[in-house]
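Re: the request from the purification team.
They wanted to know what the chain is likely to look like in 3D before they choose a buffer screen. I agreed to run a prediction and write the result into the notebook, where they can find it.
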Amino acid sequence: MTAIADFLAAQPLLALFITIALGYGLGSVSIKGFSLGSGAVLFVGLAVGAIAPKSALPNTVGALGLLLFLYGVGIAYGAHFFKGLTSREGIRANIASVIGVLLALLTMLLAVQFIPGVALPEAMGAFAGAGTSTSALQAAMAVTGDSIPATGYSVAYPLGVAVPILILGLYNAWFKPKVAPQERISLQMYAVRVENNYVVGKTLSEITNWLPQGVDASTVSRDGQTHSAEVHGELALGDVVLITGVDSSILQEAEKMLGVRVGDTFRRSHGELDYLRLFVSNPKVAGKTIREVKQMLKFETSILHLRRNDEDITTNLDLRLEIGDQIGLLAAIENIRDLRRVFGDSVRAGGELGFASIGVGAALGLAVGAIPFYIPGLGRFTFGFAGLLVVALFLGMRRRTGGFVWAMPIQANLAIRNFGLTLFLAQVGMSSGQTFVNTVTQNGLIYLLLGALIVAVLTISVLIMTVYVFKIPFDLAAGVVSGATGNPAILAFTSRTVGTDKPDIGYAMIFPSMTILKIIVVQVVGAIGLG
């Protein structure tokens, strides 16, 4: 064993990647739907750190990993997060989650006060582990000045994943909450001949608000000549308007308002119009609005819809395109080759990153996180990585500022997030191995039970508040619980359980704000309790 320890100490990078490889191998093992996922990297790191403590890399490596993770989260969820702060359901979900996190924190503080053998540094780690928040763990270690909180974190972490899954699964099995089935969304096209005198003399732009919500009128044909809606001008009897949408009943309502349906598309004098999907991969197009892109083209085309990050987005002329977007458009067959050249149509670009934007964005976030502020009675604080996350969320909402494109293709974003989280967990585990063994030997059962209690309080309180107090549907509420508890494995379980995409929406609205809250409360509690 000594020879292995000496070898790993001499080859720290080898030890790091052995930890990552073994961790992901262990994390992929599923027992009745439960798996540790990337969290297993921490446990392998603890084992490697216990065997070869000198193999641990500097804390800067772990900090870099956490930076990549939080920055990627902010860019990915910025729009959903700010929407959640303003929508009625989002506000209620955040209130429920704040109450749940504060009750979990109170549980931890009561344990420190009244249970013998429970120390604040390890308890803060257990709080972070029960909430599966690596960011809160980093904040706890920054407050204590050592890696002692990582021991409580590692003991509580598995229960932070397992307990919410168990509670949500049992609730769904016992109470069988009704979940509205999610319909498969597919774009439909109606060619409608204008026969309603009300619309004659009006442009499609003028009657946009009159048509039912969810219907887009994109193209008009008259006497074999076809033009996009914003170019065509005033409508006349006999014009054929192409309307699109995903709901047949709404499309039929729009048809009656305009005239009579005559087909699913139409022909033009110089060739047939064709529907095609293209990937946006040309950097010259990324960040431009649909209006600007149309001005670049030497011919007319109608962009009907857009898919981004597995989500269908309603198009408008001010919507900015991003690398990795998939657009559906209607164009003349002879123009298809030129359209592919303009948009790029390469899947490969989905894995590319703008490192200048990442560098500037991360630097801004770190600068904001380093700004000191003073709270009377508590002392001087900085936001730390919470400031980085706040800036990343804002940039994720903005998507682009001048020449800087903050948005990332989803594939690239997932890659840096997962790699960053892996680096952090591996480095923390390897640097905490010996301390972990000593703590578990002395008080392991106490922190195991404490972690279970903390996460149970968090899960049950958020579930009760969302479902019974705020009357939020269970599929969305399950996503809110997943965001409050924080682990993607919980989100994956809830998504499989309810069979809709509502858990993803709930998770995106809650996860960033609860990450920030956990960081702040750990800093405040640590400053008070250890100061």
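For the purification team: The mean pLDDT is 81.
Please add any questions underneath this entry.
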